[in-house]
Amino acid sequence: MHRGVYAVGHRSASRVTHLRAALLACGEGAVISHGTAAALYRFWDDWPRLIDVTVPVEAGRKIDGIRCRRCRYPAQEEIEARHGLAVTTPARTLVDLAGIVRLDTLRKTVGRAAIRKRLDVQAVDLAIHNAKGRRGLKRLELALVPYRTKDGKPPDVRSDFETLVLPELLELGLTRPQVNAWLHIDGERFLVDFLWEAASVIVETDGRETHETPTAFQGDRRRDQFLAAAGYRVLRVTWSQIHGERAAVLDRVRRAVSPRRRR
């Protein structure tokens, strides 16, 4: 598979096998990192073309299919085992990515980490502190803003759509909503995407995958009836709206949550 690294008895090598071979080829102390670590954690859908590896000392030899990253070698607490592989922790992975990806990609990656329940903001803050002087840290701080809460627990986001909309809502200056909150109405339980309890406003993010079937349509209408009867105003934001008329949709949400007083 690489010079001095062989797959013996394998009919076809799996992804993990290729990653393990890359670590062996790079020598003792090699760690999966950057984009490859993000894909391994399922923060990214696509795998990088080259396997990203951070090594304690660069040997100076290029290895086909492997990209040795030049950065501060991770501390022991910044490395964990996944599928039997040494890989940078999610916190350290986000710090590594901050210097090589754009803000929109970094925001999506942070959001995916939150969806996967692997976003530990305190751990990321520590990794940022240990990485002083590296590029992209200000971008990472900006991407973390929607996930900083008073109790230290990141919002319970569950979809890419929610992670896309949440920062936009906060940037409007709105108070932080409850995310994926349960409401009990007339003996039934309803999970709502964003809730401003004081304003009695709910925003539902209707993704294409889960809200465009006839069954989902009927279920959404029934939910809306229960919520309206309980005094809540429901605003539904669709995927096409957030991409085609984002500013106008978000402004309507802002006016619903923080209506101006009539003179």
Structural account:
The protein folds into two domains: 15-147, no CATH class; 160-257, VSR Endonuclease (Endonuclease, Chain A, 3-Layer(aba) Sandwich), CATH 3.40.960. It has eleven helices and nine strands. It has helices at residues 15-26, 34-40, 90-98, 103-115, 121-130, 137-144, 160-171, 208-211, 214-229, 239-244, 246-257, and strands at 31-32, 51-54, 66-69, 79-82, 85-88, 178-185, 188-196, 201-206, 233-238. The strands form three sheets. The chain has a four-stranded mixed β-sheet, sandwiched between helices. A three-stranded mixed β-sheet has the order 1-2-3. A hairpin with a 2-residue loop joins β6 and β7 (188-196). The chain is elongated. The termini are far apart. The model has no long low-confidence stretch (mean pLDDT 91).
